[in-house]
């Protein structure tokens, strides 16, 4: 941050404001304080029969690797609406949310990743600007070495492990760098 | 947003960037795009014997009303660390997290509120700059008409209802304006 977006001043300091205990970008001319907080990524593990829906990323980062449909949670929506919207945008698929499933705190990039278990309302899906391929995979068919993100890998692993007992407990976990 | 915080230009448009589908603040001079996404508020329902810990707000909004310790989730921490930090800041208390409990999507203000059930490690707490009073309450003693936020009210109600069966299922809910 180089200029104050309220008054245009270049007199920006990264410092702890009065009464606070974390550094923020502060304008020493107009007094504006700029807070940045973690972003939430929301997505869905969408199942159909004994398969789950994956999409091959057509955008950076991790272009060409496989992921669950997911993206940044947006203003004005519920988390479930976010998961439904992202799934539609990335796979063309319509889903029903079944339950919340995994929540990861990624402290090194200040993100939360939140995945639902969902089901395809019908086996209808296809490529989109964000996904060069969209397909259903059984556990054995999943390209485990080509999964885009650790939170997606873990969510898939938990799902197939939990499928053995048909008990899908909600899980929270911290993901650290490295 | 009046000035671009990267280049200082006043040529800011609120429009849908190429490849996107939501309006963002965009600088037509340097091409910067500014995303604003929902914030997460994290807190804890802290129990000790048959009581829960409430704090009387010493800051706006809702100054003078009672709440559970909670505040904005910050960069670089896990959600559980956020709940522990906020509880310490607002009540001086040390807690152990027991489980995630409630998650509310507040679409009208683009916030998520996430509450854990926790326990006080010992009955030691007190006022802070953010809380004029901090105290333990049984269900009957809670000032139900003076609770600061609907998500706090609901979390407390769910907790005492669930206490009857000693089954505290994780819950998700949408809170709408009004």
Topology:
The structure is a homodimer of 178-residue chains.
Chain A: E1 12-15, E2 24-27, E3 33-34, E4 39-48, E5 51-57, E6 66-67, E7 70-72, H1 79-91, E8 95-106, E9 111-120, E10 131-137, H2 150-163, E11 171-175
Parallel strand pairs in A: 4-9, 8-11
Antiparallel strand pairs in A: 1-2, 2-3, 4-5, 4-7, 5-6, 5-10, 8-9
Features:
homodimer, 178 residues, alpha+beta, Ubiquitin Ligase Nedd4, Chain: W, Nucleoside Triphosphate Pyrophosphohydrolase, 2 domains, 8-stranded mixed sheet, 3-stranded antiparallel sheet
Q: Overview of this structure, please?
A:
Two copies of one chain form a homodimer. By secondary structure, the first copy, chain A, is α+β, with helices and mostly antiparallel strands. The first copy, chain A, folds into two domains: 1-36, Ubiquitin Ligase Nedd4, Chain: W (Single Sheet), CATH 2.20.70; 39-175, Nucleoside Triphosphate Pyrophosphohydrolase. Chain A is 15% helix and 37% strand. Chain A has two helices and eleven strands. In chain A, strands 4, 5, 6, 7, 8, 9, 10 and 11 form an eight-stranded mixed sheet that branches. Chain A has a three-stranded antiparallel sheet with strand order 1-2-3, with no helix packed on it. In chain A, a hairpin with a 2-residue loop joins strand 4 (39-48) and strand 5 (51-57). In chain A, 33% of the residues are buried.
């Amino acid at each position: 941050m180089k200029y104050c977006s309220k008054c245009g001043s270049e007199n920006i300091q990264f410092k702890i404001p009065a009464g606070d205990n974390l550094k923020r970008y502060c304008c020493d001319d107009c007094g504006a304080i700029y807070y940045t907080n973690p972003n939430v990524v929301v997505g869905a593990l969408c199942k159909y029969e004994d398969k789950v829906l994956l999409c091959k990323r057509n955008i950076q980062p991790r272009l060409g690797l496989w992921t669950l449909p997911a993206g940044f949670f947006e203003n004005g929506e519920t988390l479930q609406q976010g998961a439904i919207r992202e799934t539609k945008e990335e796979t063309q698929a319509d889903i029903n949310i079944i339950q919340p499933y995994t929540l990861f705190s990624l402290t090194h990039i200040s993100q939360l990743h939140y995945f639902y278990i969902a089901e395809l309302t019908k086996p209808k899906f296809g490529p989109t600007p964000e996904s060069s391929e969209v397909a259903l995979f059984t556990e054995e068919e999943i390209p485990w070495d080509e999964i885009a993100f650790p939170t997606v890998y873990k969510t898939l692993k938990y799902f197939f492990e939990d499928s053995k007992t048909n008990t899908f407990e909600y899980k929270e976990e911290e993901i650290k760098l490295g």
